[in-house]
Structures are given as C-alpha cells and as structure tokens.
Amino acid sequence: MARSKATLWTWLGCPGLLGCFLLGFLAGWFTKPTEKTPSSSDVYQNVRQKLVAEMKAENIKQFLRSFTKLPHLAGTERNLLLAKQIQGQWKEFGLDSAELVHYDVLLSYPNEKQPNYISVIDDQGNEIFNTSLFEPPPQGYENITDILPPYNAFSAQGVPEADLVYVNYGRTEDFFKLEREMGINCTGKIVIARYGKIFRGNKVKNAILAGAQGIILYSDPADYCAPGVDAYPDGWNLPGGGAQRGNVLNLNGAGDPLTPGYPAKEYTFRYKVNEGVGIPKIPVHPIGYHDAEVLLRKVRMHVHTNNKITRIYNVIGILRGAVEPGWRPKRTIIFASWDAEEFGLLGSTEWAEVASCKDNQRLIQKADKFSNYPVYHTVYETFELVEKFYDPTFKKQLTIAQLRGKLVYELADSQVIPFDCRDYGEALKGYSNSIYKLAKKHEEQLKTYKVSFVAVRIMNDQLMFVERAFIDPLGLPGRKFYRTDYKRTGDGGHVQWVFSPGQADIVSGKQNVQPFNRKMLTL
C-alpha cells in the first residue's frame, strides 16, 4: 500500500496533548512576577480565580485544530514534530525546563505490502467475500494521505482458516456458557467478539485460553449506535464501515513488552520479540459491523502486522520552586506529554519505570484521561466531530481544563497537601477500622497544632506516604507489575478495590497457597 505509517485514529491522543498545552499555559501564568503578600485564604482564592480566568475556550479550539490537521502515529516523523512543538510552547510558557525524553519500545504497524483482511471461503477454499481494507474517509478528508487501515497492534501474524464461533463480548463467562451450557467448543475455531465490557486484550487472552486459532473484533450497533442518532457525519453514531483500532497486549502494567519493569533505553537488556510480555500468539483483526454481518460462516484471516523496536518521545516540562523541592511557590509539578499511549501506555509507563529507579516517592498525584463514545479509535474521530456534536462552544473542555487547573494549584500551592486520610478510612473501614480511627486522630491533633514549617513538612511527607504504605515491591502473585495491596486490575481489565487482593485470589481459587505465604510476610 502507498500509505505511510500514521493514522487518524491517533487523534484520540489530541485531548491528552491539548491538556499538556493547557497545563503548560498554567505554568506560564505562575512564573509571572507577583508581589509578595502575607499568606491568607483570600490571597489563595484570588490567585486561583485569576488562573482560571486566563483560560479561554477559543485557545482550546485552536490547539485541538492544530493537533488534528494530520495523522501522527507514535514513532513517525509527524509525531516527533508535534512533540517538538509542545516543547517549544512550554519553553515560551516559562517552564524551568522542557525536554524530549526518548525510549526505544516495541511498536506495531500493518504490513504495507500485505494488507490485513478477513475472507469468507466456499467449500473449495475460494474467497467469495473480503472485508474492507480501509474505512470510507470522512467528509473533507478524502485527500488526506498517511491514513493507516484498521488493525490491532501487536497481533500475531498468520492466515488461519476455520469455522466461525460468536462469543458475545469474549468474557470468561461467555466462553463458559458456550462450553458448559451450549456444548460448543472453541478449540481450533476462529471466534468473533464484539467490543465492550472488558479490555480488548482480555478478549484475546480468553480466546487463546479457549483454544481459538484467531479472533475478530467488531463494534456492535447495539453498543455503538444510539437510537434516534444518525451515523457520522450527520450524527455522532458509528458508521457501518468504522472499525475500532487498539492494542491487544496483556501487559499487567509491564510497559514495553521487551523491557518489563525497566526503562526502554539503548543500554537496557531486551527480550526477543517472540518472547515479549503479553504479546498474543494468535491473529487479531478489527472490522466494521457491516462486514461482521457477513461473517457468519467459515472464514479465513489474513493478518500480517509487523512488530518492531521504534523510538518514541515524551515531552517532560518542570517548574521548580522554593520551599520544598519544587516549583514556585512550594512543590514540583511535572508536565508530561506521553507518547505511544494507544500502544499500551508505553510512554507514561517507561517514564514511571525511570522514576521508580530514582525518586518516585516525591510524586504526589497523577491525572489521566478517559474516552468512551461510538467512533472511538476510528477514522471518524475528527476535529469536526467535536466541533459539531460534542462541544461546539468548547466550554465543556474549558470547564475540564479549569477543574484540572484548580486541582494542580491545590496540590502544588496548599500549605498542607489536601489529602484527607478519612477518605482512605471510609474505603477500608470494612477491613480495618484502625485506619479510619488513625485518620480521625490526626484531625483532632490539627485543632491544637502550632504552626511549624518543619512539622508541616513532616506531616506532608506522611500524607504522601499513606498510599505507598500499601505497596508491595515484589508485586501481587501472578501480577508482579501491580504492587498495591488495596486495589488491583481484575480479569476484565477494570480496577477493583480489594483489600489484600493476593488473599482474595487465594480464597477465590485463582492462586495457589505458596504465593500467599510470601504475601503474608509483607502485610
């Protein structure tokens, strides 16, 4: 194919990049010279109000338009240019530093010469139907090049041929129902699952455990087409030709599949590509629901996705301060534009792995983004979609930016870090009343507390370490990259709040008793 390695679906990352721009702008505001005034709640509120007033919906609109003009897949030249653009903007905002930090991670792209598709075959093995190689381009984008076809990153290569079995959402209970209640065995079959309920990588994992040769993923109209709403461009519903992209790794927090637990730098030891963590062993391919309607017979998959080590670039900005290690006036804020997010949170994870080797104990809080709407990860996720349907005035995004700005200001400039230990107590009191009582005890002490900068610093340090008290450096049994003792990601990919999930797995029969004995030593 005469199309280079980039795709409009990466525009999904634009709101994240936009958020980084906005945070950079906030940093610029805080570097403005201000008159020294006595510390008071009035001054605190005044500065925060001025900060919020500086944000404009029109600025957000222009930032988003700038980032969505052309495709910019991770690992491409266009993506690097945008990273440099962010770096330059942050320097203009007045950050003390704004650096490009690179990592060499395993990424995945379609084969230009051998396109991925699914075919229906007759009894003689002839292909009588092939799924679409590309999505129909949205209105106004017909002449845009560099659009990658639909694919699932990190799929195994192969051309399996077998009967097709529909497995609903591909959850564990769906496979159990097929085998135990309906007597349908998926061994040696190609399965087709609809998106939703659980992470797509877990669907692939379940298909592998069920013995399937391959898995096809599609967006079902029942989940992605709201009643009474037209398909894009006349509405915000998913068109029949739209196919949701996305990685199908099963990483369990490992980051780069070849360097789990360590930053993917030039000097880091790497596994071989075929030994990488969480890489599926069967072909995976996404299609639109129009094609899915046809695939209810014997099919053949053609998947030729290539995995290769590629350099990605995070943009890291730092604004330093005076009282504590940090930015003016009190604590450090690190502004980050993460690369390769849709390949498995690689940019952020690699940076965190570096931080864990250095001084991540100074990290107070991290904000992330979420997205869930019908055209998710398709070619129809455009600037016009936002402007026409989701936020025509851009006031919703302005509100989110203002909320995040206030949150950043609270964390960075409050005399006492605004964490309330009672929140942890409320979540955990069913398992441990002592945590809740301890938090209440600190509250009573604060009423008669005399101001002391050293004492406040000590208390802030203790507050920052409350959450880390539940971290097991050896990780959970079977999930060594998950280290928190009061929450974990469940089999469906969703975060579950469980006190001592290692013990919970033992009780539920998901782990044997040997890891439990080791786990008890850490509690």
Automatic annotation (TrEMBL):
One of its GO terms (cellular component) is plasma membrane. CDD domains: PA_GCPII_like. Residues 318-356 form the Peptidase M28 domain. It is found in: Cell membrane. Keywords: Membrane, Transmembrane, Transmembrane helix. One of its GO terms (molecular function) is carboxypeptidase activity. It is a single-pass type II membrane protein. InterPro entries: PA_dom_sf (IPR046450), PA_domain (IPR003137), Peptidase_M28 (IPR007484), Peptidase_M28B (IPR039373), TFR-like_dimer_dom (IPR007365), TFR-like_dimer_dom_sf (IPR036757). The keyword Membrane applies. Residues 437-483 form the Transferrin receptor-like dimerisation domain. The keyword Transmembrane helix applies. The chain crosses the membrane at residues 7-30. Residues 162-249 form the PA domain. Belongs to the peptidase M28 family. M28B subfamily. This is N-acetylated-alpha-linked acidic dipeptidase 2-like. The lineage of its organism: Eukaryota, Metazoa, Chordata, Craniata, Vertebrata.
